[in-house]
Amino acid sequence: MSEQATRIADHASGDYIATRDANETDAASNARVIQEFIACGSPVAPSTVRGSAASVSSDDTSDLDSLPADLTGNLITVGDKKTLIVDVIHDADDGEADITPIVFNSAGDTALAVLETKTCDLGALDFQNAANDYVAQRQTWDVAGAHKIGIHISGIGGTSNGVVVKATVN
Prior knowledge:
1 helix; 5-stranded antiparallel beta sheet; extended; 170 residues; mainly beta
């Protein structure tokens, strides 16, 4: 059996579908082609949803009726995607941040549910980006069926730490 991998892509949006073609023969020596389609979303490149002007250095309120504009103005539309992907960039090498996704209705004006809080810390190694900020371990949540998601910064720890939160759904 021989295989060939190809990709059908839309260069404008970055969306693509990977395919794999296999040529084989059946029991009667007839040639046949088997084609597998591997559904893929857009490339996983989270965009900044919190801290775009300056890193966030204080926790968000736990009052769902008084959430900061930085959260409610940057809701992520889930659509037919199912996984929320969050990257947290820290100012401090001992930084950690507690992130809690909040599920909103389709209009984005009512909080419907609060998902599990996860801690985004640096782990055993201090990975730094080109700006000498510290990159925490990526976190994911299952958000299938949600309309919109807001990223709540439930806690910030570390010496003079501020965070920038990047997120996407895939």
